[in-house]
Every structure is written in C-alpha cells, then in structure tokens.
Amino acid sequence: MVDAHLNSYDKTESTSYTNNFDIEWYIVEGVRLTGRFSYSFGNNDADRFISPKDSRYLQKENNEKGFYSSTSGRTNSMDGNLVLNFYHQWDRHMVTLVGGLNMQSNKNRSTYFSAQGFLNDNLTNLDFASQYETFRESGRRSFSRFFCQRKLCLR
Questions:
Q1: Is 62 helix (H, G, I), strand (E, B) or coil?
Q2: Gap between the Cα atoms of 77 and 123, Å rounded
Q3: For the residues 120-143, what does the mean pLDDT come to?
C-alpha cells in the first residue's frame, strides 16, 4: 500500500494515422485505369520510473535503487498499385487483359535505454541516475515492387 503513494509512473503515448487515396478512370470504352495509394505513420513512446523508495529495493545498495526506462518507436509505410484493364466482347466471345504495378515501402525504427541508481524519487531525470544499463537501437527498411501482372481470359 505504501508503494502506491510514491512518485513511480508508467506512461505510454501512441499516435497513428492512415491516408488512403483511390482513383478510377474510364479512359475509353473498354479501357479502365485504377490506382490506389496508402500512407501510414505510427509513433509510440513509453517511459517508466520506479521510485528508489519502492519496497523491492529495501535490501539493495543506493546505486541499485530506482529504475528508469524509455522506449520509442516510429513506423512509416507506403503501399500503392496501378492496374490497367482492357475488355472487349464480340458476339459470344470476350477478351480481358489486365496489367498492373505494385509498390510497397516500410520503415521501422525503435530505441530503448534504461538507467538505475536514483537517490531521491523526486529526481526522475536520467541525469540523476548513477548508472546506465542498456541502450539498443534497431531499425528496418524494406522496399518491394511487383511489376507487370498479366492475365488473359478467353471465353
């Protein structure tokens, strides 16, 4: 019950949005162009502080009391395609040609670090930590294309 009155916190903030765009154009009779594009963005941040007065640190040395960690992540992605359709019918026969392009791009980046050894639970800034435990940064970027999907249908 005492730990609940300490200056410990666990904060998380997250933001994301997606924007979609579609267009369909009937160029002439029997020819249609369709395009789609999507952009997504994400942002996640988390901060956690455990007071040095927390009961789990009663038997610990001062440089081991208290804990702070921070995690941050960013994502960006784009996805798009363009499809051209041709169709024509003669009596009982029908011909359809479809060609398309796809594009996709993804970027992810995240960082994590932590520190410990806080002397006072009012001093929650990293500058007041006696030691830094870890720092990790990771990221990934990918780009892929699919070119010229073709399909011929005869009936």
A1: helix
A2: 38
A3: 75
